Write a sequence for this structure.
């Protein structure tokens, strides 16, 4: 709902333009809400319990390396597969091609989008790994935020 409100605000109040194909937009929004609801429910039922069990097992085993590797892989994998990131990266590639930053071929745009997704996923993986390490060491979060 917050995303819908932001888009509606900018479309109607800032751009002062009506929604093109309003019926298609509304049907698409319903599909997105239904799909995301099922996706989140599936995560809660299947992957979250599995991930929590694995994290507990790694913590009990006392292997810092494998716990941090698991945290990185989880952050990297979930971010790389994120549908919103896939869509934003593809759009960024189209904009970069239209702006002359890269060649307009489909291969160049696909590479750009892939590397953008990889960079974001790598960053999230490292951030998650640092967060887990911070929790284990008991460091206050302010030091990491300031840094």
């Amino acid at each position: 709902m917050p995303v819908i409100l932001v888009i509606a605000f900018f479309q109607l109040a800032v751009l002062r333009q009506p929604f093109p194909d309003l019926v298609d937009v509304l049907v698409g929004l319903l599909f997105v809400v239904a799909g995301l609801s099922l996706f989140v429910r599936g995560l809660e039922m299947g992957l979250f319990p599995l991930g929590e069990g694995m994290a507990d097992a790694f913590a009990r085993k006392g292997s810092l390396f494998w716990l941090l590797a698991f945290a990185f892989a989880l952050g990297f994998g979930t971010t790389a597969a994120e549908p919103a990131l896939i869509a934003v990266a593809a759009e960024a590639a189209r904009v970069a091609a239209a702006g002359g930053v890269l060649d307009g071929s489909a291969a160049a745009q696909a590479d750009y989008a892939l590397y953008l997704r990889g960079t974001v996923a790598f960053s999230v993986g490292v951030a998650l790994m640092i967060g887990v390490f911070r929790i284990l060491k008991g460091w206050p979060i302010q030091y990491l935020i300031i840094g």
